[in-house]
Amino acid sequence: MEPPAAPGPERLFDSHRLPTDGFLLLALLLYAPVGLCLLVLRVFIGVHVFLVSCALPDSVVRRFIVRVMCSVLGLLVRQSDPRLRGAGTRVFIANHVTPFDHNVVSLLTSCNTPALSGAPGFICWSRGFMELGVTGSRAELVDSLKEYSAHQGNPPLLLFPEEAATNGRAGLLRFSSWPFSILDEVQPVALQVRRPLVAVSVADSSWITELLWTFFVPFTVYQVRWMPSVPRQADERSEDFALRVQELLAMELGVVSTRITAADRTEHMKRLRHTARLPFAPALSQRPAARPRVPPSLPGGAPEDVRVVAMAQQVKEVLPHVPLEVIKTDLVQTNCVDTTIANLLEGRVPFFPESKEAEDLPAPSTSQAAAASGIQGSVAAPSSKPATKQFAKSPVERHLSLQERKRALYDYARRRFAEKHGAARAGGSP
């Protein structure tokens, strides 16, 4: 049996909070008045939970009281194999699903999570993060955490090597190696989160927004599964150690271990925001992909090849000067027509324009040196304003100039597509 294919970034992160199913959306609308009442009530109760957690010292009694009060807020925490919890291990390694994963685990056992981002201060402390006072490189952070773990009186560390939250349904982000450089033994912790009606977490959503949605929904169930400790093998590098723990954690969760990093996630969200602003993107996304034109070289190709060829033809109609093989190669990576067009327009995918199609296009408004270098692969169509002869000093001016060139190219491609299909219909009419 072949292993499941690695999911793309679009399957690891939810970009929409509300459900797409009509029945669930109707149920959410009917529940909304109750949810708003719960939200207001739970905000006041949440203040008391925070005050109690600050007043009581860290102990089993405090964790029990706060856990019961959190259940009133709709946070239900369950655990399996509690006998494996913290069996002499000083570093916990967990997958990341919501901004409150460290708070949930701290309701079960004493642990600290260092603050890796955000300004230190009251907000950082109130969210339950530990401030180390280290603002330098990761090497300094690792040294500080090694020194922290050397003191047996300090609670264990809870680290999230993914460094970004996923939806927890499809796969794990690639683990960073620095958490596995602290000690030679770690304990994986598998987290699964479920809630009705809405998504558990949405990419690029702030922790305040996630907290309000947690108070709005009737309940959110956190399932914590403690796994046996994993020691480092002899002469095993930190990168290999991280990959081995990632595979074990993925098997426990029933998901795929991917090579997508937190940086890839950031780039994916930038592309989503960019394609959402493109004027021609809705027309491309709504264009039917039926009756794809398969080239003779793929007479009986796989369904995936037919779909890629169909999307490549859509991109080719908009950007006729781009070689078809370059389009197909990028579509295999992005699996999205809009994202591929954005990559080609912004020069993320270098290519040399096809001579025949390039001659049909108007004269480019950019310099010939940029087109010959292959970095800026697109040939810009003339806009209503003359091209800027000098490099704009202001980032706003450069952005507006880029948007004008893109808009002109889209307008030209749309006219060319309409003329092409209009001529074909006129020729086929009696």
UniProtKB/TrEMBL annotation:
Give the span(s) annotated as Disordered: 357-399
Concerning CDD domains, the annotation shows:
CUE_AUP1 (cd14420)
Point to the regions of Low complexity compositional bias: 362-381
A Gene Ontology biological process annotation? Answer: ERAD pathway
Q: Do you know which InterPro entries this protein is assigned to?
A: AUP1_CUE (IPR048056), CUE (IPR003892)
Tell me how this protein sits in the membrane.
Answer: Peripheral membrane protein
Q: Which Pfam families did the record assign?
A: CUE (PF02845)
| SMART domains linked | CUE (SM00546)
Question: What is an example of a GO molecular function annotated in this UniProt entry?
Answer: ubiquitin binding
Q: Which residues form the CUE domain?
A: 307-349
Show the stretches that span the lipid bilayer: 23-52
Q: Which UniProt keywords apply?
A: Endoplasmic reticulum, Lipid droplet, Membrane, Transmembrane, Transmembrane helix
Location of this chain's protein in the cell? Endoplasmic reticulum membrane; Lipid droplet
* CC terms in the record's Gene Ontology section: endoplasmic reticulum membrane; lipid droplet
Task: Say where the protein is mainly found.
Answer: endoplasmic reticulum
The text of the family note is: Belongs to the AUP1 family.
- What is the name listed in the Swiss-Prot or TrEMBL entry for this protein? Lipid droplet-regulating VLDL assembly factor AUP1
